[in-house]
């Protein structure tokens, strides 16, 4: 009998780029082409909606639009985001940099709060 410890909701929600989209040009929208994109049901990476492999596959996707979309996701893992900052494609790097700055600003604020709380 299965316990309640692993609820079914922890499945990856990404469309995963197909390993071999026969003859299809890159640039088909995720979800609109079932040859280029396949649903993924792997376990999610903690704190995100995608599994670790989808994050890596999408971060390496040839379409810049896919990568910049990834960079602006709220749940993007920090290591994936940091890779995208060093991207050759300016729009992708730009949106990754902007998002990374937001996260850093948020964490600095949290650090300041923690410190003032523990020193009193
Ligand atoms: Zn296609
Ligand atoms: Zn996945």
Description:
The protein has 4 helices and 2 strands. With 120 residues, it is mainly α. The protein has one domain. It has a two-stranded antiparallel ribbon. The protein is flat. The structure holds zinc ion (2 copies). The site of one zinc ion has 6 residues, from loops.
Short description:
The chain is 44% helix and 5% strand.
Structural domains: how many: 1
Distance between the termini: 50 Å
Regions with little confidence, pLDDT below 50 for 5+ residues: none
Q: Could you tell me the strand content as a percent range?
A: 5-15%
- Total number of strands: 2
Structural class of the secondary elements? mainly alpha
User: How would you spell out the order of helices and strands?
Assistant: EEHHHH
The ligands bound in this entry are: zinc ion
What's the topology here?
Layout: E1 15-17, E2 37-39, H1 52-59, H2 64-71, H3 78-85, H4 90-118
Antiparallel strand pairs: 1-2
Helix pairs in contact: 2-4, 3-4
One zinc ion (ZN) binds next to helix 1.
List keywords for this structure.
120 residues, two-stranded antiparallel ribbon, 2 strands, binds zinc ion
